[in-house]
Design goal:
The protein is mainly α and 142 residues long. The chain has 6 helices and 3 strands; from the N terminus they run ααααβββαα.
Length: 142
């Protein structure tokens, strides 16, 4: 067996061992990854998909609120921050992404539905918190 064949077999084995994600996850996971990259490169803000990093997301949204920018320009950033929070929720709770009518959210194992994108919008209007949304989703309390 050559080294090339061994590397190919190892890659194939590693690929098949990954847990499949629902198709609904593709879009918000991409939004989250794009936001993590943009924040790291542009704002020097490290987001690592931990609940702790949502403190930074909430603060970043507060800072954006203080800047004069048209809401249409802010909406893309809020979508990305909401997707980051949703991915934190999925990872912490074992939930999954769902999609309906172009909207994306998270379903936790207890059957509750969460809309982190809407919570990011609420945070922008000073009425929400992605950190607290994740905490509530992780608590399992109704």
């Amino acid at each position: 067996m050559t080294t090339e064949t061994t590397a190919t077999q190892t890659t194939e084995t590693a690929t098949t061992r990954q847990e499949p994600r629902p198709a609904a996850a593709a879009t918000p996971v991409r939004w989250a990854a794009d936001t993590v990259t943009a924040m790291r490169e542009g704002a020097r803000l490290r987001l690592d998909y931990s609940a702790r990093s949502l403190w930074s997301v909430d603060r970043a949204i507060e800072e954006i609120r203080g800047e004069p920018a048209p809401y249409a320009a802010v909406e893309t950033v809020l979508r990305g921050f909401g997707a980051c929070a949703g991915e934190v929720m999925v990872r912490q709770t074992g939930g999954e992404w769902w999609a309906s009518g172009g909207e994306h959210g998270v379903r936790t194992p207890d059957g509750r539905l969460w809309d982190p994108r809407e919570e990011a919008r609420r945070r922008y209007t000073a009425d929400g918190s992605l950190r607290l949304l994740c905490r509530d989703a992780s608590s399992g309390d109704r």
